[in-house]
Amino acid sequence: MGDLPKPDAAQRLARAKSRRGREQLEFTAHELFAADRHALTDAQYAILHDILAALVLDLAADLRDALSSLIPAVPEIAGEPVAGTFDVLFASPALHDLELVEAVRHRALAHRLATHLRAERNGPGLLPDLCADPDPAIAQPAESFAADISSSLDPAGHRRLRITDLPPEVAEHLVLGVAAALRHVMIEHHADLDASQIDDGLEEVVQDHLPRLKATCGTMLRTPPVALALKAANRIAAGPLTAALNGGEVTLFESLMAAATGLRRKLVRRLFYEPGGECLAIMCTSLGFARDEFAHIFAAGNPVRASNGGDASDLELALGAFDRLEAEDVAGVMRRWRRDPLYLNGLRLLAEPGS
């Protein structure tokens, strides 16, 4: 086999960042489930743990309620506490899925960033103006987006990670794991229950849940209609993106950046939070943003980048990376990032040492 084409400097940088990101994700997963921790602080661990627990317990309650409706003759099911379900799963390998951990980690980062930005009180945000826009093509999807955000908030006002936010295959795996853990808890608490009846009921509940999940999952991966409407109207620029960040509207910012660049939302989140800011510089350069516009967007996210691996990056170093970028190199990296992720994974495996 001939030598692979040599990537340019920007592509080499992007690949190096991608490798480091995968290593950091694997390290976070290890720290989350390990008996002892060496890098995650108690506060970082608590946020990750609580987000994952809420996701599992919400799903366990849904499955329990569906099972109770299916077998009303067994009253113990309706009153079954689901807290033990998470403990059973957390002690097993069932949650050791890197895509699941990545979704949890990104929700934690977004939560911390939104909290920080709202405390700064640099502006009211972008969403209120979008909801009041005179163009119904903008206002209506903006109102739907605002309603979806509102419905996902927990009692403390933090956005939950929902089962529908996950990729379909990850959600399916999680449903099966939670169902198995729920069965374990029920049988353990109620030795007189007919295990076969519980199995029959849970199997039917799961078979009912999975097709609906496949149809609705991946909401965090799709670009919402409000962002697509703004893209179609040519109204995504540095100003609106900055306004969203100033108001702590992190999910809206990610959505607009995905629509503007044509990248997957999942990838936008990775690139925005990566330490150093080089990948964010590539995205901003591709959109024609000025140096000061990039600087403001980078600085807004900098307070939480330290928890994503490494120290909080120096603004001058990020600006230096921005200044060194060449338009042709940026175009090549963006073209690569827009490719199918499965295809890119094949290229990555081929390029790794030993391939």
Descriptive notes:
This protein has 355 residues and is an all-alpha fold. It has one domain (9-351). 70% of the residues lie in helices and 0% in strands. The protein contains 18 helices and no strands. The chain has helices spanning 9-33, 42-70, 75-78, 83-90, 98-120, 127-131, 136-151, 168-189, 195-216, 225-232, 238-246, 250-261, 265-273, 278-286, 291-305, 315-324, 327-337, 341-351. Helix 14 packs across helix 17 (327-337). The N and C termini lie close together (11 Å).
Protein topology:
Layout lengths: L8 H25 L8 H29 L4 H4 L4 H8 L7 H23 L6 H5 L4 H16 L16 H22 L5 H22 L8 H8 L5 H9 L3 H12 L3 H9 L4 H9 L4 H15 L9 H10 L2 H11 L3 H11 L4
Helix pairs in contact: 1-5, 1-17, 2-5, 2-8, 2-9, 4-8, 5-15, 7-10, 8-9, 10-12, 11-12, 11-15, 12-13, 14-16, 14-17, 15-16
Poorly predicted ranges (pLDDT <50, ≥5 residues)? 1-7
Strand content: under 5%
Q: How much helix is in the residues? A: 55-70%
Q: Major β-sheet, in short?
A: none
N- to C-terminal distance: 11 Å
Shape: globular
Count the DSSP helices: 18
Question: Concise description?
Answer:
It is built from 18 helices and no strands. With about 350 residues, the chain is mainly alpha-helical.
Provide tags for this entry.
355 residues, mainly alpha, 18 helices, globular
